[in-house]
Specification:
elongated, about 0% strand, single chain, Arc Repressor Mutant, subunit A, mainly alpha, about 190 residues
Amino acid sequence: MSQRAPRVAADEARHRILAAARDLLLDRPFAALTVGDVMARAGLTRTVFYRHFDGLPQIAPELVPDSDDPLVDRVLRGSPGDLIEAMITGLVGLYADNGRWLRAIDAAAADPDIAAALEGALVGPRRLLETLVADAPDPPPNPREFALLLMATHRAYLLDKFGSGNDTPGNRQEAIAALAALWRRLLAK
C-alpha cells in the first residue's frame, strides 16, 4: 500500500508551483512548460495545480517577478520629483535581476490566452506612462498610444540588454543612463 504524501498548505503549494515554473523557465521557453513538469519540480500532484490555476496561461502574470509589490506601486509611493528616476531604476533592476524569466514570459505572450492573462498586469504601468506623457510639456496627440509605444520600447531594450541573464558590471548603469536620456528628452521644455 502506498503512502499518501503529506498535505501542503495552499499558500505553500502555490509558492512551490510558481518557484518550480520560474526554475524551469531558466532553461526553456514558456511554451515548453507542462503542468506535469512544473508539478514534478514542485514535488506536488497535478490535481494540486488545478486547485490554484485553470491552466498554464493563468500562472504567467504571477510569474512576473514584482507581482507581490508591483513596480508601479513602489514608484507611486515616492515623491513626484523622483518618479521618473524611481521608475527607471526599478525597471532596470527588475529586468537585470529577472531577465531570463521575463524573456520566457514575453515569448509566451504570443499565445492569445497568455496575452489575455498578462494584460491585467500591464494596466498599472500603462496608466502610469500615459499620465507621465500626458503631463509632458509637449504631450503627444494620443497619450495612450504613446504609452504603448514606450512600453514596447522599454521592454525590447531591456530584454535585449538583460534577457540572456547578462547582468555584468556596468550594464545596469548603462541602461539607467540610456533610459534617463530618453525620458529627459521626452519631458524637455
